[in-house]
Amino acid sequence: MQSAIDQFNISITRVRDLIAIYQSLHAQSTNVLDLSDILRAALVLAVSALDYYVHEVVRIGMLEIHCGIRAEPNPPQNSSQSAFSRFKVSLGNASEDRRLALNLSSWIVNDLAQNYGSNFTNQSHNISTIIPAIANCINSKLNNTTWLENEIRERHSYSSFQQPDKIADAIRLISDEKLWKEVASIMGKTDQDIKQQLSLIVDRRNKIAHEADIDPSYNLGNRWNINETLVNDAVDFLEKLVTAIHQIL
User: From first to last of its 249 residues, what are the pLDDT tens digits of the chain?
Assistant: First the structure.
């Protein structure tokens, strides 16, 4: 899961670079030049970094559970299955393991020839030699999770993981921790305060992304006020939030 947090940190660095560009230009220009859209872009990118982190950490976690690297979450009290077990995949891809079993002999021969040379299957081998070779082939096939990765990406491509409830639903696929209570404990705030602050940041992001940040109560073209302090506070909060979530996982 390290790659998910590494990518988030790279994205946040890009956000801070945008803010630095704003600071540099602001110091060299007058108020005639409106630079506020740079701050708006930084805020949108910061929320996108959170969204992408959740997508990635859930995808990686689900693949690890499927491969037996990570334990499956315990089911909630009102269900006999975890959110991971209830995750829906297409029947075509779900039958991948069955197809492998039905074609066992052909793909083992092909894999042995590919891994050990074309003459391997034409030679005589004792049982102590051939069993590890076949086991390696089977393990390689079973650990091929491309089909599941494609399913996860397809299912989640229509989802945004920005609002607190949506993030909690996503994390529930890979963890049975009570997300916001654990995050609150790490960040030293109440879970309600954290969810409220996140919701306010996401709501402002949505105004920028979907409403051009227009304030309809004023004259044509007037936008909601934004400043460097507001954006820096939001970025700092999101960085601490993701760090806390990753610590839990």
Answer: 899 999 999 999 999 999 999 999 999 988 888 999 999 999 999 999 999 999 999 999 999 998 889 999 998 888 889 999 999 888 776 676 666 666 666 667 677 677 776 676 666 767 677 777 767 766 766 667 788 888 999 999 999 999 999 999 999 999 999 999 999 999 999 999 999 999 999 999 999 999 999 988 877 778 999 999 999 999 999 999 999 999 999
What is the sign of the dihedral through the CA atoms of 51, 52, 55 and 56? Answer: negative
Domain ranges of the chain: 2-87+148-248, 103-144
Q: State which H helix or E strand residue 12 sits in.
A: helix 2-28
Q: Where are the alpha helices (DSSP H) in 29-119?
A: 36-66, 91-94, 96-102, 104-116
Nearest to 89 by CA among 5, 160, 172, 146: 146
Counted residue by residue, the chain has a size of 249
Distance CA 115, CA 12 (A): 42
* DSSP string across 139-178: HHHHT--HHHHHHHHHHHTT----SHHHHHHHHTTT--S-
